[in-house]
Design brief:
transmembrane; 11 helices; two-stranded parallel ribbon; protein transport; 2% strand; Sec-independent protein translocase protein TatC
């Protein structure tokens, strides 16, 4: 009798061990699939990085150093606004030159500059493909209705990111560069900026704004999971307004109220769009529950 029990116990333990090994293999299989998606994404970013490295003369002179030039698109538009509304906009709003001097202080500084700026361009251009690979990884785990509702994830996330990058590059970066280059606590201190500091500031502002513009996508995911609701967002709108103004003040360290409002306006629109998206998801969920009832 005891032998029979031991056999059953052994068979049971072997069966449970087999299920555990199967689950572990499934987990590692998923990791292997994810690894392949990430490898393809890294290769795409590497290709874009190589192209940026090859065309570096254009990347550096036109893109990287653009916000430092007086004829940059943003500054020309600001001068046109002054010409169109001279009674309402101060002439100081028109920017024709950026003071200060940019220097390199390291032996390999210029090579590192070329490499780092090429990598940044590669990441910016490769983000849409990275989102596409992540979507391909997540898609098989979704139900058919979830696949349909999230079918435009890659497109909308990519568009919002690129819009954020463009807004950060053409609005946030030049306004911040102009303010910080002109800011001085004493006439005896000359602004001499290292190229690493300049590149880091422009890249942070540009990529940071691109990530901030992903707010509607984040709210969509949180609403789908039931974590975020439109009621919560509406009831805390006043706190969101304060937070947006604080973010705008940090992103654009300038005492100019108009500049802060220019930066904060898209964030207000994104927040309201996020409320609309969350409300739409909640409405569909309630409709499905009422239909099932």
């Amino acid at each position: 009798m005891s032998v029979t029990k031991e056999r059953k116990s052994l068979v049971k333990s072997i069966t449970e061990k087999g299920k555990t090994m199967e689950a572990e293999m499934s987990f590692f299989d998923h990791l292997d699939v994810l690894r392949k998606h990430l490898v393809r994404s890294v290769l795409a970013i590497a290709v874009f990085t190589g192209l940026a490295f090859y065309y570096y003369d254009f990347i550096f002179d036109t893109v990287v150093m653009g916000p430092r030039k007086g004829d940059f698109w943003t500054y020309r538009m600001m001068c046109k606004m002054v010409e169109a509304f001279p009674k309402y906009i101060d002439k100081d709003f028109c920017i024709t030159s950026i003071p200060g001097k940019i220097i390199n202080t390291q032996m390999a500084g210029q090579f590192t500059l070329q490499l780092n700026s090429s990598v940044i361009c590669g990441i910016v251009l490769g983000i849409p493909y990275l989102l596409f690979e992540l979507w391909k990884f997540i898609r098989p785990a979704l139900h058919e209705n979830e696949r349909r509702s999230a079918s435009g994830f890659v497109f909308f996330a990519s568009v919002l990111f690129l819009l954020g990058v463009l807004f950060g590059y053409y609005i946030v970066s030049p306004l911040s560069v102009n303010f910080l280059s002109n800011y001085s606590v004493s006439k005896e201190i000359e602004n001499t900026i290292t190229i690493d500091s300049y590149l880091s500031s422009v890249a942070t502002l540009t990529l940071g704004t691109g990530i901030i513009f992903e707010l509607p996508v984040i709210i969509y995911v949180l609403s789908k999971l039931g974590i975020m609701t439109p009621k919560f967002m509406r009831s805390n709108r006043r706190y969101a307004v304060v937070l947006i103004l604080v973010i705008s003040a940090i992103v654009t360290p300038t005492a100019d109220i108009m500049t802060m409002l220019i930066v904060s306006a898209p964030l207000f629109l994104l927040f309201e769009l996020s409320i609309f998206i969350s409300a739409n998801i909640e409405r569909k969920r309630n409709k499905e529950l009422n239909g099932a009832a």
